């Protein structure tokens, strides 16, 4: 299968390039970057820091290369992701999107596009994080109604959105298990006086240094607490999942798929 990788100089794009280039079932045909970047016109292997050419050029006009591809892998920014989505829709190409921070309107556009093209939307493409979702559902169903639930997430200083897309998905899993709407019970940070609101889910976002990704969900009871935590030591687990998602999409019918579909996690 032929793939295009968006943002190949970014932390995810560079790792995806490395992993995809070593897979026997994938061929990188091009990279795509925003207009005006100094690496446009260079080989993606050099741009991504691999130190060797892969015979695939990074362009800033996806229309010039999109027909060579089967799947586009996009972990960039919300603005650039929407441009890529529209191009994929016009050319009827599959998309793996791991970008986070979309507005409700933008995400609705992704849903609409999935009626015409296959899309995997993966706020987190780690196999273990998606297993954690399952554990959170079990915990929430068992003790969620008698717990004070807090979500603490940590990322590097460069992450643009807060809370993280992953922590939002975790909150959604818990809220659904409690038959509630996350928007009705989420509390983002705290300041001032007053006791904790019963039944709420507290969010706390830390941005520091080069922390790859860390998520802890705490179920606090009187005299004890349960913590479910995932730490990523680097971003390679997410890049591996992105490539698995691209392989999954090859030949798929239009639809909005999740990483659980890709990894077969019930």
TrEMBL record:
<feature type="binding site">
    <location>
        <begin position="7"/>
        <end position="12"/>
    </location>
    <ligand>
        <name>NAD(+)</name>
    </ligand>
</feature>
<feature type="binding site">
    <location>
        <begin position="98"/>
        <end position="100"/>
    </location>
    <ligand>
        <name>NAD(+)</name>
    </ligand>
</feature>
<dbReference type="GO" id="GO:0016726">
    <property type="term" value="F:oxidoreductase activity, acting on CH or CH2 groups, NAD or NADP as acceptor"/>
</dbReference>
<feature type="domain" description="Dihydrodipicolinate reductase N-terminal">
    <location>
        <begin position="1"/>
        <end position="124"/>
    </location>
</feature>
<feature type="binding site">
    <location>
        <position position="37"/>
    </location>
    <ligand>
        <name>NADP(+)</name>
    </ligand>
</feature>
<dbReference type="InterPro" id="IPR023940">
    <property type="entry name" value="DHDPR_bac"/>
</dbReference>
<dbReference type="GO" id="GO:0008839">
    <property type="term" value="F:4-hydroxy-tetrahydrodipicolinate reductase"/>
</dbReference>
<feature type="active site" description="Proton donor/acceptor">
    <location>
        <position position="155"/>
    </location>
</feature>
<keyword id="KW-0963">Cytoplasm</keyword>
<dbReference type="GO" id="GO:0050661">
    <property type="term" value="F:NADP binding"/>
</dbReference>
<keyword id="KW-0520">NAD</keyword>
<dbReference type="GO" id="GO:0051287">
    <property type="term" value="F:NAD binding"/>
</dbReference>
<keyword id="KW-0457">Lysine biosynthesis</keyword>
<comment type="subunit">
    <text>Homotetramer.</text>
</comment>
<keyword id="KW-0220">Diaminopimelate biosynthesis</keyword>
<dbReference type="InterPro" id="IPR022663">
    <property type="entry name" value="DapB_C"/>
</dbReference>
<comment type="function">
    <text>Catalyzes the conversion of 4-hydroxy-tetrahydrodipicolinate (HTPA) to tetrahydrodipicolinate.</text>
</comment>
<dbReference type="GO" id="GO:0019877">
    <property type="term" value="P:diaminopimelate biosynthetic process"/>
</dbReference>
<dbReference type="Pfam" id="PF01113">
    <property type="entry name" value="DapB_N"/>
</dbReference>
<feature type="binding site">
    <location>
        <begin position="165"/>
        <end position="166"/>
    </location>
    <ligand>
        <name>(S)-2,3,4,5-tetrahydrodipicolinate</name>
    </ligand>
</feature>
<dbReference type="InterPro" id="IPR036291">
    <property type="entry name" value="NAD(P)-bd_dom_sf"/>
</dbReference>
<comment type="similarity">
    <text>Belongs to the DapB family.</text>
</comment>
<dbReference type="InterPro" id="IPR000846">
    <property type="entry name" value="DapB_N"/>
</dbReference>
<dbReference type="Pfam" id="PF05173">
    <property type="entry name" value="DapB_C"/>
</dbReference>
<dbReference type="InterPro" id="IPR022664">
    <property type="entry name" value="DapB_N_CS"/>
</dbReference>
<keyword id="KW-0560">Oxidoreductase</keyword>
<keyword id="KW-0028">Amino-acid biosynthesis</keyword>
<comment type="pathway">
    <text>Amino-acid biosynthesis; L-lysine biosynthesis via DAP pathway; (S)-tetrahydrodipicolinate from L-aspartate: step 4/4.</text>
</comment>
<protein>
    <recommendedName>
        <fullName>4-hydroxy-tetrahydrodipicolinate reductase</fullName>
        <ecNumber>1.17.1.8</ecNumber>
    </recommendedName>
</protein>
<dbReference type="GO" id="GO:0005829">
    <property type="term" value="C:cytosol"/>
</dbReference>
<feature type="active site" description="Proton donor">
    <location>
        <position position="159"/>
    </location>
</feature>
<feature type="binding site">
    <location>
        <position position="35"/>
    </location>
    <ligand>
        <name>NAD(+)</name>
    </ligand>
</feature>
<keyword id="KW-0521">NADP</keyword>
<feature type="domain" description="Dihydrodipicolinate reductase C-terminal">
    <location>
        <begin position="129"/>
        <end position="263"/>
    </location>
</feature>
<dbReference type="GO" id="GO:0009089">
    <property type="term" value="P:lysine biosynthetic process via diaminopimelate"/>
</dbReference>
């Amino acid at each position: 299968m032929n793939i295009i990788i968006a943002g190949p100089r970014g932390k995810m794009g560079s790792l995806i390039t490395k992993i995809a280039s070593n897979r026997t079932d994938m061929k990188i045909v091009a990279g795509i970057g925003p207009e005006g970047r100094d690496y446009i016109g260079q080989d993606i292997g050099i741009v991504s820091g691999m130190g060797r050419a892969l015979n695939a050029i990074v362009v800033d006009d996806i229309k010039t290369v999109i027909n060579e591809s089967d799947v586009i892998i996009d972990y960039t920014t919300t603005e650039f992701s929407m441009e890529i989505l529209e191009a994929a829709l016009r050319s009827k190409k599959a998309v793996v999107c791991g970008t986070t921070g979309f507005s409700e309107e933008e995400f609705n556009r992704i849903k609409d596009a999935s009626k015409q093209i296959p899309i995997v939307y993966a706020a987190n493409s780690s196999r273990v994080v998606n297993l954690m979702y399952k554990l959170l559902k079990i915990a929430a169903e068992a003790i969620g109604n008698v717990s004070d639930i807090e979500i603490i997430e940590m990322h590097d200083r460069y992450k643009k959105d807060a809370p993280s897309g992953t922590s939002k998905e975790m909150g959604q899993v818990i809220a659904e298990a409690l038959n509630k709407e996350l928007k009705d019970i989420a509390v983002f940070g705290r300041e001032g006086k007053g006791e904790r609101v019963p039944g709420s889910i507290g969010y706390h976002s830390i941005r520091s240094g080069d922390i790859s990704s860390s998520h802890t969900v705490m179920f606090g009871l009187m005299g004890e607490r349960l913590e479910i935590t995932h730490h990523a030591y680097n971003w390679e687990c997410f890049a591996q999942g992105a490539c698995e998602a691209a392989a999954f999409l090859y030949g798929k019918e239009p639809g909005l798929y999740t990483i659980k579909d890709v990894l077969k996690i019930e």
